[in-house]
Request: fold
Amino acid sequence: MRIGAIAGITFKEAKRDRVLYLLFFFAALGILASRVLAILTVGDRLKIIKDVGLASIAVFGVLMAILIGTGLVYKEIDKKTIFTLLAKPIRRAEFILGKFLGLVLTLFVMTAAMTAIFLAIVFAHTLEVEGALLVAVAYIFLELVLVTAVAVLFSSFSTPILSSLFALAFYLIGHLSWGLKLILAKMAPGPGRALVRALYTVLPDLENFNFKTEVVHGLPIPPGIYLPSLLYGLCYTAFILGLAILIFRRRDFI
Amino acid sequence: MRIRAREITFAVDFGPAFLKIEAMADAIRIRDLRKDFRLGFVPRTHKILKGITFSVREGEIFGYLGPNGAGKTTTIKCLLDLIRPDAGTIEIFGLSHFAPRSREPLGFLPENPYFYDYLTAREFLAFTADLFGLGRTERDGRIARLLALVGLERAADLPLRKYSRGMLQRAGLAQSLVNDPKLVILDEPLGGLDPLGRKEIRDIIVRFKEEGRTVFFTSHILQDIEMICDRVAIIVGGRIVKEGALRDLVSERVLFTEAVVAGLPPEAFAGIGESVSAQGDRVLIRILDEAKVDEALDLVLRRRGRLLSLSPRTETLEDIFVETVTRT
Reply:
């Protein structure tokens, strides 16, 4: 109930943020531009539409999560609204979870809106609804949920600018860490391999949520990959939120 | 023998109950509260609270006084678990302040009320009520009553960013009452208000007491505290330097008598009292020795002057405050 009330107020606040609408505008522009790019392309135009559309949803979704998420908790502390809030019988964990869920709800609405435009463009081209696209979007959303948790984590102890940089670094590392997996396969056993293995375990691998290539090119997706990817996303999100709560519980609000 | 047995039964049955009542009589109990902050680029330890101990009894209005930076707000923030103390214990109605449940019977108004300024007062109160899990019907009824209590009915649907400071203070007071609290904590509730606004808030605080609520508040405006407080504590440099009932702290002793006389020169009162100021033919005389008041009156009568006012000045809370702070 209390988490719901905080999530509701967070959603209301995020809805008022102009950055959200600016990013949505560019995302929509990106998705619409895919149609123009497709006209200029020789070959499979549909692939271009799908590729650019999904990439727009992913990139602008992440920007929304980072730019709004990193300011959420910080703003409460900076504007001192948190004093009135935490003076109520609320656990600090409930506050963090409420903030997180409020932003997740905002991103859900935004992703749904971007997807609607995207599906409409694809439908205009093929005159059929492709369910596989929704799978790709669902995993993009799962990635956004994780990035939101990261943004809330940094926001609980740092300024929005630094938090944005940290969260962006997390996102980039997350999309490049699969390289470590390739290195691992080619390394001989030894301390170096153990180090790379440890690094790969700790660092996020956001490619786990990337089904864009398979969906765009119509490649088969092994059914056994869905559940591990989902669990990986949920567990990582829970871990990051746990960390955020731990840090936030120790904070003094001077 | 029977009577004796009865006496014993009485003692056994009611003894613990009495003890329980005694133990529950404190709304707030703070023991040896300590807090250091490490501030600055090269962190240096600043001792903000150096062992604060005091209690606020149920049903009283308790004033917490101190100069700026004495540790008043830090004490309140520790009480509300916004700041974790380094040492000491805090109990709210017998519960440790670390338990979120201890904040259930509590209402809080921060020093400069900061709220979500895009919400209207009604929306903000509804949000606060949701945090306490009030049902929709109960919630709407209570919000209407609170808006009427603080006189914000007509502005209830305006966003809070359009509110004046006084209106924000009243909205803050309303949100602190949403859960019908037994204990109300107000941090500088009178700060920055005009005399009319101060009177309104003062009246509301007195009404709280009549309704059986306990009020704990800090203020710089000592005349206001004097008018409404049952007990006070004075904190200076992180230590409580004085605590007690107002009537025990402030004596009835006359400090000096002020007389405003017209038609006589200031020099006429040499040896009786000191002339503080002269304006036109009016002279303000301060007579320190009570025995010399009659002498001054005689002089005015003899030399055909006019006595405009004569007022004995008894000790006020401000005198005690200034003396305590200066001495410390």
In short: Chain B has ten helices and 14 strands. Confidence is low (pLDDT under 50) at residues 1-24 of chain B. The interface with chain A takes residues 37, 77, 80-84, 100-104, 106, 108, 110, 112-116, 118-119, 127-128, 130-133, 172, 175, 179, 185 of chain B (CB under 8 Å).
